[in-house]
Amino acid sequence: MDFWPEFLASSWGREFVAGGFGGIAGIISGYPLDTLRIRQQSTNSGSSLSILRRVVATEGPAALYRGMGAPLASVTFQNAMVFQIYAILSRAFDSSVSATDPPSYKGVALGGVGTGALQSVMLSPVELVKIRLQLQSTSYATIQSASAHTGPISVAKGILKTEGLRGLYRGFAITALRDAPAHGFYFWTYEYTREQLHPGCRKSGQESLRTMLIAGGLAGVASWVCCYPLDVIKTRLQAQSPTSPQKYNGIIDCLHKSVKQEGYRVLWRGLATAVARAFVVNGAIFSAYEIALRCLFNNGNIQTENTI
23 vs 55, 73, 204, 281, CA distance in Å? Predict the structure, then answer.
């Protein structure tokens, strides 16, 4: 019973809990847009609006949240770990900065790269399960009822049974290649933007809610734009399963065949949906994180400016 008070009394514990709140806010706010992005990336199914209309008409609005259980359960923990690891690494990469000052921009960027590389170990299986569920339509589930999955646990068990542990980490290499630089851009953009919008806030922690939302949203957009072609390749590789024809034999083969068959535009398909989702989700993540952090560090008293 003494664990939680002691845990929350530490800086690491507060970063962890605040990061978890950010993860919950991000998943709930952006999951429908993520489902549309995945469907756009996997096949040439039309615009996000046409996919939205088709999914709602044929499968119902609940289909937009299919597969959310796995990310909601895991991303809360994953996001908590990401912010905690980032808080440690951003200072470890530049020890010349005083403990009372915010990390340098160099430490922020390098800490973000290290955080992205580490978190891909946890994220890769979760995204594999999520993608398989998001691409499973109601019509497919009706026709192939024996092989259809009812939830994330069912998908994970099926992958382990047919492909083993290695199958659960299908797409791990491309996930790491995507996440390491993306997180460097992510944290650097957030810290730089919030300071430009509200000078001195990195040290005082007194930025407005509007600053949190805008800086967080732009950080999400920057991280997606810099790595989006890798995300398209990752989606296509992880969408493959032993029960379907193997179209791609690896990252290079997937890139070559995708460009050859559909042109270079395929590498940016769904970008508008991803950018819109990124702005909403990451604005919510950083706002929830910063507000929770202030509550924890100030014993429940929010010391931020809440003006919009």
Answer: 26, 10, 24, 9
Domain parsing of the chain, residue ranges:
7-297
Give the CA-trace dihedral at 219, 231, 76, 217, to 10 degrees: 20
In this prediction, residues 73-95 reach a mean pLDDT of 86
Tokens of 45: 């199914």
Rounded Cα–Cα distance for residues 31 and 19 (Å)? 18
| Confidence (pTM) | 0.78
Between the alpha carbon of residue 94 and those of residues 100, 101, 172, 205, 288, the distances in Å are 14, 12, 29, 21, 27
| pLDDT (mean) for 34-57 | 81
Checking if the pLDDT of 10 tops 80, the result is: no
CA distance 243 to 88: 43
Q: How far apart are the first and last CA of the chain?
A: 40
7-297: what fold? Answer: Mitochondrial carrier fold (1.50.40)
What are the angstrom distances between the C-alpha of 254 and each of 38, 249, 266?
Answer: 16, 7, 12
